[in-house]
């Protein structure tokens, strides 16, 4: 491990290569001897005793594990909460709805299934800011909400606002051509795509082809998963690549963000096609011996409110730090609060487990997870080491 640190001279004498320096991130003074370019110091493990850091990381880890045990029943259950949040169809075809909205006064479900009546289907408040609703099946024993029908969560706030929100756990969201807002579409196809081919064995070395489905076409339009499957995958295979790194798969309302301002973290982008078409694309890649990597953006989220996570329960702090710490001015995005509780970690970590074909992942903008202020100020966020361990 090596760190680049800007020296803080605590001695009045000029820096001569060895001086008493302060290390702001840990609050201790150490002797450093390696001066790099532009006045930065190269700090190796031999320059300091890091046993205190290991103890701090272990202490933070134990605190988080205790929280997980109390609220979620343990670490393994914690990473499988995607099976209980959002919409879950039960064996008897009843639908269980579950959301996390700690600041909300009341939650209701509305949509095509009830002719958009706003208050006929209230959620019941549970512990730890969770809300639940159970819809029994219809008289013919089919689910109360049809596949491909639209839904909204109606949130009543402490300020007596009425907000219409997309579930953070939505698996499919779409946008009408005449609208700029995405809609939550219930995705539960009667004949879902079934994986045929296993993931290829780990290759000795990777030749990675970075790709973006939407621009993988010579035509002046947004390309599709089907186009990528038919026309691009054979080219990648024939060119000798054994891995593709897919960009901009997680749903993002602003196409020009190149997938970096996520609005729905559990939904594959509908502008390229359906979730089943994405599954087929991945399956065909596996049949060609191609490993699939997926870019994930867990460092920040879109500022959108109506079709994003921002102010889901009416507060500035649901999922995120309150401003100004919770805003990234350069990227116009919100920053997650990884350390105040387990809910954010639940939300983000499950996305890695609940994904078609058991993909591999590349974490985008890791500096925002490792440091309090991202790239611009490298002040280490000690509380986030636990997050790295959990994820």
UniProtKB/TrEMBL annotation:
Pfam family membership, one: Alpha-amylase
GO molecular function terms noted in the UniProt entry: 1,4-alpha-glucan branching enzyme activity; hydrolase activity, hydrolyzing O-glycosyl compounds
GO biological process entries:
glycogen biosynthetic process; nervous system development
Q: Where is the Glycoside hydrolase family 13 N-terminal domain?
A: 85-170
InterPro entries in UniProt: GH, GH13_cat_dom, Glyco_hydro_13_N, Ig-like_fold, Ig_E-set
Annotated Gene Ontology cellular components are: cytoplasm
Gene3D superfamilies with a match to the protein in the record: Glycosidases (3.20.20.80), Immunoglobulins (2.60.40.10)
Q: Where is the Glycosyl hydrolase family 13 catalytic domain?
A: 232-306
Q: What is this protein called?
A: 14-alpha-glucan-branching enzyme
Recorded source organism is Dissostichus eleginoides (Patagonian toothfish)
């Amino acid at each position: 491990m090596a760190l680049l640190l800007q020296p803080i001279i605590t001695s009045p004498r000029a820096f001569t290569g060895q001086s008493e320096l302060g290390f702001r991130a840990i609050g201790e003074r150490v002797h450093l001897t390696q001066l790099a370019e532009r006045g930065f110091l190269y700090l190796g493990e031999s320059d300091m005793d890091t046993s205190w850091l290991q103890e701090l990381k272990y202490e933070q880890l134990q605190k988080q594990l205790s929280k997980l045990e109390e609220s979620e029943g343990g670490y393994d259950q914690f990473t499988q909460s995607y099976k209980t949040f959002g919409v879950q169809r039960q064996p008897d075809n009843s639908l269980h709805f579950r959301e996390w909205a700690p600041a909300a006064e009341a939650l209701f479900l509305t949509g095509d299934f009830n002719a958009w009546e706003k208050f006929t289907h209230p959620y019941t408040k549970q512990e730890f800011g969770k809300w639940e609703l159970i819809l029994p099946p219809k008289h013919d024993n089919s689910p109360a909400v049809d596949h491909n029908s639209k839904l909204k969560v109606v949130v009543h706030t402490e300020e007596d606002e009425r907000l219409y929100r997309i579930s953070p756990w939505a698996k499919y969201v779409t946008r009408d051509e005449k609208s700029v807002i995405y809609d939550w579409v219930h995705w539960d196809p009667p004949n879902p795509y079934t994986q045929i081919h296993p993931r290829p064995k780990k290759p000795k070395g990777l030749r990675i082809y970075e790709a973006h489905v939407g621009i993988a076409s010579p035509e002046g339009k947004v390309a599709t998963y089907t186009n990528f499957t038919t026309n691009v995958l054979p080219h990648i295979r024939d060119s000798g690549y054994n891995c593709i790194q897919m960009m901009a798969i997680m749903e993002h309302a602003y196409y020009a963000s190149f997938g970096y301002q996520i609005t729905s973290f559990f939904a594959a982008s509908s502008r390229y096609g359906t979730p089943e078409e994405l599954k087929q694309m991945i399956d065909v890649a596996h049949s060609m011996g191609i490993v699939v990597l997926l870019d994930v953006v867990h460092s920040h989220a879109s500022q959108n409110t109506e079709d994003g996570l921002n102010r889901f329960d009416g507060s500035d702090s649901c999922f995120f730090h309150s401003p100004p710490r919770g805003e990234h001015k350069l990227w116009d995005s919100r920053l997650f609060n990884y350390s105040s509780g387990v809910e954010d970690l639940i939300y983000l970590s499950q996305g890695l487990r609940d994904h078609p074909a058991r993909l591999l992942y590349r974490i985008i903008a890791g500096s925002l997870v490792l440091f309090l202020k991202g790239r611009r100020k490298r002040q280490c966020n000690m509380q986030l080491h636990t997050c790295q361990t959990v994820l």
